[in-house]
Design goal:
Helix content is about 45%, strand content about 10%. The chain has a six-stranded mixed sheet with strand order 4-3-2-10-11-20, with helices on both faces. Strands 12, 13, 14, 15, 18 and 19 form a six-stranded mixed sheet that branches. A three-stranded mixed sheet has the order 1-16-17. By secondary structure, the protein is an alpha/beta fold. Strand 8 and strand 9 form a beta hairpin. It is elongated, with a radius of gyration of 44 Å. The protein has a domain at about 335-425. About 25% of the residues are buried. The longest helix is centred in the middle third of the chain and has 47 residues, at about 450-495.
Length: about 800
């Protein structure tokens, strides 16, 4: 396979004839991927405070509307002008997160109470955040009272009591106990004249005028509800709830990111995950098809432009987290020269020290040589027994050992002198062929000492002959290797195709051996595999001091041990640790040789074979095999493909640590599959481990609990509201999924709230100035006479009937 060109006609900036672009800037696929900065915690801002006593609301009965959501609280007066009953407020006066935090300032010995967005002020305040809600039901009443105090204070109400009726939203199926505690708080703490409650999604439908018969689908922070309305009234008995909302979805996205990037240098906060979910996730119109398309193997990033990207590459977005550039220290020319001079001086000192040590060593050898020569002179001055005793005292068994030591020291001294003079040392071949005169003499002609000497000479001759054979075999092996290299070179010159195919086969065989070694290594790492068990048995047999139970006896039979304990080597994890250590020690050298052989063949092919290019190397093959995974993690192009190669050292290069581009890329998250996977849980809750029906199934179940005429009117009037329904493509997917489960004669229409954030508050504001609000409101007298859990039902409170 020919190497792929670096530039081609499909790349941005390339000419139509395929010539290379004149621009020197290389093609970077990630330059075409949208980059989004990671959201930071909102900065605390001063909340506007209404001048209540000087405003038109003072001493009026203008209702106060509180949309008490589990994620955000919105509050304000229902009318912009109390004197005009139809002057509905366009938006709430205050809106902030429904959270509190207590912070202790130890230096000032002061405890600060933070509410709303102020809880994100710093790390200390964020660590003690509390919410009044458990799921979407109020349970923390001390926190709820603090939030309401803060809300009424921002509305400027500084009187002893709140002299305005209150209209408050609540969740579907709010427990009577929770509503009773809220009544107690309103009438006892704030002394409001009357209070009324309604479901937030029905208030939103009321604001958008969806009609009397409708199917309201609302997804908020903690849950998703489907409420049918008949004749303008919500029917609680036919409503359904799905335990999935924005909080669970953002938590799922956060866990997917943590699983995808376990070593990410920055901490991804739940707040950032929520912003990613709301800004970047979208609902797939056909999830199965899109996922199958995202599993397509991307082409090489060198050979295509964004117009031919796979679905995964097209859906990829980058979230850039803040980072600090590791700028290398800038040094002047004088500093660099001084540093080079210091390095040179240090090297000279090291070389001089090495020379001195070598010189001292040689002086010691010269002293030893003089001593041994003097020792040899004693041979003619004393008897042989005394001379041998002297040699034994100096550590020599015989005269030959002394001669061998003298020869060795003389050779070392000659090599040292030659090196000092800068000459090449040539070893004198003074070795003469030894003679063995007694080998062929019959034993009958020799005395006892002669027989012993004959045996000694026979052993020495066998060793000498073995060395000669080994030397001859080595010379023959070298000659054959030179002939093979010459034949290989002749074949490369005269028949390059055959030479290339043969070397390619050797290259493939080397790769297959590496793969087989990896496979065997994986099998041996599993102690339950057959290969690991067999190897452990071999190690056990070697480790045992005596023959194991059932082992072969010296006579060849098999005998069971009696009275001995059974060998239990391998029963403990420590034994397997020894096994792994032995395995690593055995395999490391062979693995290194295998990669070295592969690298040598690869170098020859790259140098001598014009048809073998960088894209044919083992690293490139691995990169192609893992390109889908690389695209999932690193976006289009797959990042650095060479990082998969086992011999890659780019990550160990210290210069990369200071590269600003590498640091920037290290602080990037890539979202692609997650963008459709997280919203898909609403239709397939099993993705997140929920044993519930999907949203389309819930809607179909709800509408089928009514007669055919009512069902037809509901399907023509499906209303979507709630912050968690703001995904791109949500309405289209809901329409297509419900349309697929209904007869072709039934018309289906899906509409969305105009303002998902404030429509519930706006609808409650419009409804609170009407007669129905006052007729169904709970007064202080009703609270005292009928109990705190007493409640009047109305059209927007999800009636039982």
């Amino acid at each position: 396979m020919a190497p792929v060109a670096v530039h081609d006609s499909r790349m941005p900036g390339s000419s139509s004839n395929g010539a290379a672009s004149s621009s020197s800037t290389p093609y970077q696929p990630l330059d075409h991927v949208p980059v989004h900065p990671a959201a930071d915690f909102p900065k605390p801002k001063p909340v506007p405070k209404l001048a209540y006593r000087t405003s038109a609301y003072f001493n009026t009965e203008c209702p106060i509307v509180i949309d008490n959501g589990s994620s955000e609280l919105r509050a304000g007066f229902a009318l912009s002008s109390p004197s005009k009953p139809t002057s509905y407020s366009s938006q709430p006066f205050v809106a902030y997160d429904n959270l509190i935090s207590k912070v202790r300032d130890r230096k000032k010995s002061l405890t600060m109470l933070l509410v709303g967005n102020d809880v994100y002020a710093d790390g200390l305040s964020r660590s003690s955040i509390r919410t009044p809600f458990d799921s979407d039901v109020v349970t923390g009443w001390d926190a709820m009272e603090i939030v309401l105090d803060y809300t009424f204070a921002n509305l400027g109400i500084d009187t002893d009591r709140v002299n305005h009726p209150v209209c408050m939203t609540e969740t579907l199926c709010n427990p009577a106990y929770s509503r009773g505690i809220m009544n107690e708080l309103m009438f006892e703490a704030y002394q409001v004249p009357m209070v009324n409650y309604g479901v937030d999604c029905l208030f939103s439908a009321y604001q958008n005028e969806v009609g009397p018969d409708a199917l309201v689908v609302s997804s908020g922070r903690s849950s998703t509800v489907v409420v049918p309305t008949v004749g303008g009234k919500g029917i609680l008995t036919n409503s359904k709830r799905l335990a999935w909302g924005g909080a669970q979805a953002s938590d799922l996205l956060l866990r997917l990111i943590q699983l995808k990037y376990p070593n990410f240098p920055s901490r991804v906060t739940p707040w950032q995950a929520q912003n990613m979910m709301e800004d970047l996730c979208y609902v797939s119109s056909d999830y199965t098809t899109d996922i199958r398309g995202m599993s397509m193997l991307p082409a090489s990033h060198k050979t295509h432009n964004p117009s031919s990207w796979t679905p995964m590459e097209r859906s990829d977005v980058i979230i850039q987290f803040p980072f600090a550039d590791a700028l290398p220290e800038q040094k002047s020319a004088e500093d660099l020269a001084a540093q080079a001079e210091r390095r040179k001086a240090a090297g000279d000192r090291l070389r001089e020290q090495t020379r001195k040590m070598r010189l001292e060593k040689m002086m010691q050898k010269e002293n030893d040589l003089r001593y041994y020569l003097q020792l040899k002179e004693w041979k003619g001055k004393e008897r042989k027994a005394e001379y041998l005793k002297r040699l034994e005292n100096d550590g020599f068994d015989n005269e030959g050992a002394l001669d061998k030591m003298v020869t060795k020291i003389e050779g070392a001294l000659k090599r040292f002198r030659a090196k000092e003079l800068g000459e090449e040392y040539v070893e004198d071949d003074k070795s003469e062929e030894p003679s063995f005169p007694l080998v062929d003499v019959p034993d009958a002609d020799l005395d006892e000492e002669g027989v012993k000497e004959k045996r000694k000479q026979r052993l020495m001759k066998a060793g000498y002959d073995a060395r000669l054979r080994a030397k001859a075999e080595k010379a023959e092996e070298k000659r054959l290797e030179e002939e093979a290299l010459q034949r290989d070179e002749d074949e490369r010159v005269n028949n390059p195709r055959v030479w290339s195919s043969k070397l390619r086969r050797e290259y493939d065989d080397a790769i297959n051996r590496i793969k087989e070694r990896k496979r065997m290594k994986e099998m041996l790492s599993d102690r339950k595999s057959l290969a690991a068990q067999q190897r452990m048995k071999s190690i056990t047999a070697l480790a045992s001091d005596a023959p194991a139970s059932g082992s072969a006896t010296p006579t060849g039979g098999r005998k069971r041990k009696k009275g001995g304990e059974e060998d239990t080597f391998g029963a403990n994890d420590d034994d397997w640790a020894i096994y792994r250590e032995i395995q690593a020690a055995d395999d490391s050298e062979e693995e290194e040789d295998a990669y070295t052989n592969l690298a040598n063949i690869e170098t020859r092919l790259l140098t001598l074979d014009p048809t073998f290019g960088p894209d044919d190397t083992y690293a490139a093959r691995l990169a192609r095999k893992n390109r889908l995974t690389l695209t999932f993690f690193n976006g289009p192009g797959g990042g650095q493909e060479s990082t998969i190669a086992p011999t890659d050292t780019a990550l160990d290069d210290p210069t990369n640590a200071a590269d600003p581009e590498s640091i920037r890329r290290a602080h990037q998250l890539h979202l692609n599959v997650e963008r459709i996977r997280v919203p898909e849980v609403l239709w397939q809750p099993s993705i997140a481990g929920l044993d519930q029906a999907g949203l389309d199934e819930v809607c179909s179940h709800v509408v089928h609990s009514f007669d055919a005429e009512t069902r037809a009117r509901m399907l023509q009037n499906i209303f979507v509201t709630g912050r968690h329904t703001a995904y791109r493509g949500f309405e289209e997917r809901l329409y297509s999924s419900i349309r697929a489960s209904q007869p072709s004669s039934v018309s289906v229409k899906v509409t969305a709230a105009k303002d998902r954030r404030f429509d519930a508050w706006k609808g409650a504001a419009r409804w609170s100035v009407g007669d129905e609000f006052r007729q169904s409101a709970i007064t202080k007298q009703d609270y005292e006479e009928k109990g705190k859990e007493w409640f009047k039902e109305h059209a927007l409170s999800a009636n039982w009937r």
